[in-house]
Amino acid sequence: MRLDDSGLLVSLNEGMFQQPLWHDFLERLRSRMQVRYASLAFRPIDEKSIVELYAGPAIPPHLDRLFAEKFARDPLPYRDMREGRVYSLSELVPPDNVELQSYRNDFLRGLGVEDIRSVRVTESSGVDAWLSCAGPRISSSATALLTALAPHLRAALRGFVALEREKLRSTLTSEAFGRLNFGWLTLDAQCRILDMTAHVEQLFQRNSILRRGRYDRLTPTSPGLDRELTALVKTFAQDAEARPRAINLSRDPWMDMLVAPFRGQSMAAGGAPVAIVYLSGDRSSQADRCEQLVDLFGLLPSEARLAWEMGQGIPIMQAAANLGLTVETARNYSKKIYAKMGARGQAELVRIILSSVLAIA
């Protein structure tokens, strides 16, 4: 038996990328089997989530209400099915089981379903799936077709589970990057953006230092920085072992980037990545941060400005010069700052600021 006569295998492998999931596969299976319904259900081991997909006519409202009121969920003993074996409805509904007989007579027959063929497959991580066909009659070839489909469904399910896990990891990583005001993007040899984290787009929107230019090119506002970036990327295109370079883009609000050669592999469309750019920037200006320090620790504005300078690791003499203070005045301020913030020195001041809500503000 050729499974791909009707494109079944192609649609099964592509179904994980569709919305709704596996729509074409179920429609093809329904047509191939000439049945009323074709369904695919996922029930993970913990049973906290259920995905149920089907192709076929809509369930009439009165039967939908009956199902919800009387059965709550499909009562067929799917969990008792042996993995890889195809079951008929008569095997799933023992004659002495009153509830299942009621489900068959009151609900399934109302849908025009007199028989079912169903197979259970289990993905290697333990996630179960059930593929079923239902209708007035089921052809004799149904068992053979579902048996042949089972290993292919198992492989497709394994790919689906792996894809969902990677999506979750990517989402969690992106959220962590966002909280750290951090992001990355990859560039081809012409400085065109091939891929990037969502946080980079937010950085573009919050400042005018960098932007996505024509042809998706990463374009710094400063012509000098544009030339420097272009030269760096050309160097990395010729030498993947070249030394990465860190560049400060702005002091207020603070924003840095690290440009490094791309040493991984990528399937990105439009070109091969030769460089990866790591961006880290603050959402708030220095003035905003000083106001937040005033609110958090009860500092005076003049103390908050010095505290923010010192919180960046700047020595007190340099911080005093940056703010136009004498060193003696800065030292007097620092004593008051340490007392109000509960710090025993500059190192602890830095730790307190970095571990406060300012880190995610």
From TrEMBL:
<dbReference type="InterPro" id="IPR016032">
    <property type="entry name" value="Sig_transdc_resp-reg_C-effctor"/>
</dbReference>
<dbReference type="InterPro" id="IPR000792">
    <property type="entry name" value="Tscrpt_reg_LuxR_C"/>
</dbReference>
<feature type="domain" description="HTH luxR-type">
    <location>
        <begin position="296"/>
        <end position="353"/>
    </location>
</feature>
<protein>
    <recommendedName>
        <fullName>HTH luxR-type domain-containing protein</fullName>
    </recommendedName>
</protein>
<dbReference type="InterPro" id="IPR036388">
    <property type="entry name" value="WH-like_DNA-bd_sf"/>
</dbReference>
